[in-house]
Design goal:
This protein has about 160 residues and is α+β, with helices and mostly antiparallel strands. The chain has a single domain, classed as 2-Layer Sandwich (Alpha-Beta Plaits), CATH 3.30.70. The chain has helices spanning about 15-30, 65-80, 120-130, 145-150; strands at about 1-10, 35, 40, 50-60, 95-100, 105, 110, 155. The strands form 2 sheets. Strands 1, 2, 3, 4, 5 and 8 form a 6-stranded antiparallel β-sheet that branches. A two-stranded antiparallel sheet has the order 6-7.
């Protein structure tokens, strides 16, 4: 059984609905009830002009890391995300594996923890909500230090519910 943390983001085609739909999908992959952060609104990083909704969900799954990654990509496509997507642009759904059993995994197709997460407040703040004493599996850097080092963006927790 693997404890997995997945970051979710959306800013197209009813972003709140996109996140709720993704949560329902993740519930089916989890052998226990997922733990969910609140939903955050953050300014877009890059060329997109629409704010994003972001969250973090922890699941427990029997799937291996590669198989889970493939299922996440399939779900992104099902929810309207094209296979090829320019970096930092608007999207219906983004699902990133932040942690898989606190392992460091690097293959040709998969890097865990996600290479960019330590610089993204829209991942770090929801992550801290679920895991206030989180430490990076590679560097052992504490979540508070990552938050203090991340680029500052406009971000706030919403009242939206799951």
């Amino acid at each position: 059984m693997a404890q997995v943390i997945i970051a979710l983001g959306s800013n197209l085609q009813k972003p709140h609905h996109q996140l709720v739909q993704a949560k329902e999908f993740l519930e089916k992959l989890s052998v226990s009830k997922p733990r969910c952060s609140g939903i955050y609104r953050s300014e877009a990083v890059g060329p997109s002009s629409e704010d994003f909704l972001n969250a973090v969900i922890e699941i427990e799954t029997k799937l291996g890391a590669e198989e889970l990654f493939e299922k996440l990509k399939e779900q992104e496509r099902r929810q309207g995300r094209p296979t090829r997507y320019p970096k930092w642009t608007a999207r219906t759904l983004d699902l990133d594996i932040i942690d898989y059993n606190h392992l460091v995994i690097e293959t040709d197709t998969l890097i865990i923890p996600h290479a960019e997460y330590k610089r993204r407040l829209f991942v770090l703040l929801p992550l801290k909500e679920l895991f206030p004493n989180w430490q990076d599996p590679q560097s052992a850097q504490h979540i508070d230090d990552m938050i203090n080092s991340a680029s500052q963006i406009r971000i706030s927790k919403t009242n939206l519910s799951w």
